[in-house]
Design brief:
Helix content is 41%, strand content 14%. By secondary structure, it is of the alpha+beta class.
């Protein structure tokens, strides 16, 4: 070769100020069967060809691409002048390079798992030795609510880190090795690359299968229990409801037995009102639709209920409320409201003024959460919706005929019992112990995954970049004659695996949704839409409006956001059954998220594949 050309190229490699891509620094193609070598530089090497110098198996580094052919220089030739060209040199191992390596990713996952384990174990030890009566905090309800919200935000951050690290490892474990891909191709089968997939599960090694299942099983307790390791409690008052005439307020003697007989005689009388259960239609129902039980022995504590008259004289019922104020106070289970006396002068059933013969008209005890919502105040004899207080607060005429058991309420006399300092934030030691054990198991599993996935002899093909690098380095004998083809063809007919018919690939623009199969798109999207519709439908039936949840507030307790779950007499079984019921819904959301993640990753991979071309030097990682 020309001596001047040789000297010019040597200068190019020695001087860091000269751009290798400059046109005049590269030799013209040499028309010979074997590419000429000048000082270790390949003057001509077509894509897909092997280097002609069989003694030098050093990987080649592309210096310039011109037309259909590429020109290369070996790492051995470049590294003395450009140490960064050798990926094994210390100067090439920059943080940016290390950050893109799988070892860095797995070390990060292990670090996250170790960090969450230290936090969880430290929290368990702290609350176990310092907390009293399983209480982290006891006192003001506002402070308790804020602390409870903060702790649950931290729990969700920790669980996201831990489960995220676990999901990354699960995706790496189902990523096929090159040997597994070659074996599948020989059987005319395909494998997923770069997306979370259970399709590959049957082809991966048994160690990977066991680790994958271990990750999945250790995630279940975290999904179902972690959020409930810390919880808040509030005090709720039980109270007595009395419907009386003005004479009772003035000291008239009541006869509870006679009042009970009067109440029983009205049980089957019907009135027009709003149902308190779905579908909440306006229907005609009996006064005893709620199965009222007029039991004078409990609320009256005697035959005359004179205890409440005595308390009135002592000023216990010193708060007078009009109907709107009274409804606002007693249509929620939470607050300081206690025993209430409802004063009535009119009977809507008989459409007459009540007589003073029976000063006590009705008595009942609200001793439990009727949830969702407290419907005794409205019952089915009223035509307005208790679940929409903003309506009757803005228009008091809507509640002008508010009645309880058919008696129109003129005003209320309320007593209060302050429970604003009776809130607590509590922990559950068994759940925290389970969380710590699962956390430690995941940490060990991540370390084992790191060992498996960094196998240099047969590394996992996890990304599009891995696949491109692997198939450029060593072609697949089964698919080497197949042109670019799509999923529908390769799964429909085995003849495409044999390269027949050969289909010319032509670039064309397609929408992103073509990147996934129609079936998977419909299943995932319909699942999300169905979940959303079902949630809004349930909220609408329970709270009266599908948009009502936006007014509840972050971390606030609301009557329409809880339910009264029956069953189990044992207190521990009751607690854990509620824990599972509460967390099963976010578990369903998590499963839905995994499906969306797989769908979006598939679309992005299909978008990225056509971009892997001759002049594209960007890293390809998904």
């Amino acid at each position: 070769m020309d001596h001047d050309l040789t000297e010019e190229m040597e200068l190019a490699f020695m001087s860091p100020d000269i751009d290798l891509s400059h046109e005049h620094l590269l030799p013209p193609p040499v028309q010979s069967d074997n590419a000429s070598q000048v000082n270790g530089v390949s003057a001509q090497l077509s894509i897909g060809e092997e280097p002609t110098d069989t003694d030098d198996d050093t990987p080649l580094l592309a210096a310039k691409h011109v037309g259909p052919q590429a020109r290369f220089a070996s790492i051995t030739a470049l590294s003395p002048w450009f140490p960064e060209a050798d990926p094994d040199s210390d100067e090439a191992q920059t943080f940016r390079v290390k950050r893109s390596q799988r070892k860095f990713l797995l070390n990060g996952c292990a670090g996250l798992a170790a960090f969450t384990f230290v936090i969880n174990l430290g929290s368990l030890l702290y609350v176990h030795y310092d907390a009293e009566d399983k209480s982290i905090f006891s006192g003001d309800c506002d402070q308790s609510g804020k602390l409870n919200s903060i702790l649950h935000v931290l729990i969700n951050i920790l669980s996201t880190c831990l489960l995220g690290a676990s999901n990354v490892c699960m995706q790496l474990l189902v990523a096929p090795r090159r040997s597994q891909i070659d074996f599948a191709h020989k059987s005319y089968k395909w494998l997923d690359i770069s997306i979370p997939s259970v399709h590959n599960f049957r082809t991966i090694a048994w160690k990977q299968k066991l680790l994958w299942l271990f990750f999945a099983l250790t995630s279940l307790p975290l999904h179902f229990l972690y959020n409930s390791s810390i919880y808040g409690t509030v005090a709720v008052n039980t109270y007595v409801i009395l419907v009386v005439t003005p004479g009772f307020i003035n000291g008239a003697r009541a006869d509870a037995r006679a009042s009970e007989e009067q109440a029983k005689s009205r049980e089957n009388i019907t009135m027009y009102g709003l149902q308190d259960i779905p579908p909440h239609h306006y229907v005609e129902t009996t006064l005893n639709e709620h199965n009222w039980r007029f039991n004078y022995s409990k609320p009256c504590r005697g035959e005359n209920c004179d205890i409440y008259q005595t308390r009135m004289q002592q000023g216990a019922f010193g708060i007078r409320l009009d109907p709107v104020e009274c409804l606002s106070a007693y249509t929620t289970s939470f607050g300081n409201q206690s025993d209430v006396i409802l004063v009535s002068t009119y009977d809507l059933v008989s459409d007459t003024t009540v007589t003073e013969d029976l000063p006590l008209l009705f008595a009942a005890e609200e001793y439990r959460l009727l949830g969702p919502g407290v419907f005794w105040a409205c019952s089915t004899t009223n035509s307005f919706d208790c679940r929409s207080p903003e309506k009757w607060k803005n228009d008091p005429n809507l509640v002008s005929n508010w009645n309880v058991y058919g008696y129109k309420i003129d005003y209320c006399l309320q007593s209060q019992h302050d429970n604003s300092d009776l809130c607590r934030v509590m922990y559950t030691a068994p759940i925290l112990i389970i969380v710590c054990i699962m956390n430690l198991c995941k940490l060990v599993a991540i370390v084992m995954t790191r060992y498996l996935c960094l196998d240099q002899d047969d590394p996992a093909i996890c990304t599009i970049g891995d696949a491109v690098a692997s198939f450029l380095k060593r072609q697949d004998e089964t698919t080497k004659n197949i042109c670019l083809t799509d999923y529908s063809k390769i799964t429909r007919d085995k003849q495409y695996w044999r390269g027949r018919p050969r289909i010319e690939w032509r670039p064309e623009t397609k929408r992103w949704f073509y990147g996934a199969t129609l079936r998977s798109s419909i299943l995932v999207l319909s699942g999300g839409v169905a979940y959303l519709i079902a949630s809004l439908f349930q909220i609408n039936n329970t709270a009266g409006s599908a948009s009502s949840f936006v007014h509840y507030g972050f971390g606030k307790i609301n009557d329409y956001a809880h339910d009264n779950i029956q069953g189990f007499s044992d207190i521990n079984l009751k607690f854990y059954s509620r824990v599972l019921f509460v967390n099963v819904w976010q578990f369903a959301i998590s499963m839905l998220y995994i499906q969306y993640n797989a769908l979006l990753t598939t679309i992005l991979c299909n978008d990225e594949c056509p971009k892997v071309k001759l002049h594209d030097f960007d890293a390809h990682e998904v």
